[in-house]
């Protein structure tokens, strides 16, 4: 697959060949769905907690005598059936993570890249460099028509570019090792630098 390469000012900078085994797959929704669920589950804090019968603050005095009332033989107001009693089998802190094999995670990233390429939402730029001026970069981004874009650079993001992009709404910047399925799919446009293409192809082959 061959795509045109542009500069941030919109001028042409040649073209680049993209490997079909990474950018030319037929995207599968089931694989992408499992990857997004895996990522979101890892990010879930799992700190939800309720008070059980042994944890609620309430009197421990026996409510009424054991026999002769004609009622149930209750011994504590902390029982779950009473108002202000403990919660039975409520949520407790836990990890929501589940496993996915490295092979599957690599496949998921390939399908995410292929999905953007097939949708025509993949843009290749020569490099992501700026002098740190947000106003200049914002004008360039607006002229290119990027409203919700993810820019992936090489091994490290240019410091000036990261500083300039920090205050632009809808623009995310990541190094190539930070490329992930969720961030790729949640943005309308995926922008890769030439060094990012090389790094991703080396990582996914």
Automatic annotation (TrEMBL):
CC annotations in GO: ribonucleoprotein complex; ribosome
Biological-process GO terms, alphabetical: translation
Alphabetized UniProt keyword annotations: Ribonucleoprotein, Ribosomal protein, RNA-binding, rRNA-binding
Gene3D superfamilies: 3.40.1370.10
Any Pfam family: Ribosomal_L4
One GO molecular-function entry: structural constituent of ribosome
Keyword presence, Cell inner membrane: no
UniProt similarity note: Belongs to the universal ribosomal protein uL4 family.
Subunit structure: Part of the 50S ribosomal subunit.
NCBIfam families for the chain: rplD_bact
Function recorded in the entry: One of the primary rRNA binding proteins, this protein initially binds near the 5'-end of the 23S rRNA. It is important during the early stages of 50S assembly. It makes multiple contacts with different domains of the 23S rRNA in the assembled 50S subunit and ribosome.
Name of the protein this chain belongs to: Large ribosomal subunit protein uL4
Source organism phylogeny: Bacteria, Pseudomonadati, Pseudomonadota, Alphaproteobacteria, Rhodobacterales
């Amino acid at each position: 697959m061959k795509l045109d390469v542009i500069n941030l000012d919109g001028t042409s900078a040649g073209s680049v060949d993209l490997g079909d085994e990474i950018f030319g797959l037929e995207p599968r929704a089931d694989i992408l769905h499992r990857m997004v669920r895996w990522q979101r589950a890892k990010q879930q804090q799992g700190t939800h907690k309720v008070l059980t019968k042994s944890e609620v603050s309430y009197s421990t005095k026996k409510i009424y005598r054991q026999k002769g009332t004609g009622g149930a033989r209750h011994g504590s107001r902390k029982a779950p059936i009473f108002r202000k009693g403990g919660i039975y089998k409520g949520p407790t802190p836990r990890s929501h993570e589940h496993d996915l094999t490295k092979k599957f995670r690599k496949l998921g990233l390939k399908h995410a890249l292929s999905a953007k390429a097939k949708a025509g939402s993949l843009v290749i730029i020569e490099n992501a460099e700026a002098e740190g001026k947000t106003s200049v970069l914002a004008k360039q981004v607006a002229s290119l028509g990027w409203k919700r874009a993810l820019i992936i650079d090489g091994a490290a993001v240019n410091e000036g570019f990261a500083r300039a992009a920090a205050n632009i709404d809808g623009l995310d910047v990541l190094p190539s090792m930070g490329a992930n399925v969720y961030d790729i799919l949640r943005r309308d446009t995926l922008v890769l630098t030439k060094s990012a293409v090389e790094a991703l192809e080396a990582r996914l082959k």
